[in-house]
Amino acid sequence: MSATEPPKRRGWQLPGQESSLESTSTEAAEPQQDLSPAEKAGGLEPTPTMRGSVLGQVTDVEKSTLQRGEANDPIVTLRLERNDPHEGRTFVATVRLEGGEALGFADRGDWIEAVGKSKSAYLIARRCINHTTGAVYGTTGRRALKVLRVILVILLLGGFALFALNMFNSYSRQKAQMVSLCEQSGAPREMCQ
Fold this sequence. Notes:
31% strand; 2 domains
């Protein structure tokens, strides 16, 4: 250590002084590159807009798939946290988004507000707003599609039942006409049945 070089400090330092660790270490600068623009800018917490929602900043994004029948549905799991001035980073919720519109919905550092159905380990989002990008995720269209499918199946089954009933009645009428014609021709009754 030379006489002109300031002593190296460990732990805290006074504002305005550059730490020798900061000037030589590239590891401290690497996590800054992974942060979103909202997180780099300080990420001010938005105001919730939905009743009964959870609001937090995304700290982890996991993508997977769920097999339903022959199709694979994408699933995105977001870990939400908030910064409490007294306790530091606190866990808010784990939010699960399902379907193709979930892919690319949120990145690390985005502020997410979600409403949905709580399971034991996570919240299955019915509606979700990304306050950082303005994107909106909603499963109301999917629910309407399921209802439409159920109605279509009921209509098809009802149509098939009416067709079968009509065919049975037609067959019964034809058989009665044949028996009547047979009896009119003078044939014995046992042969007409």
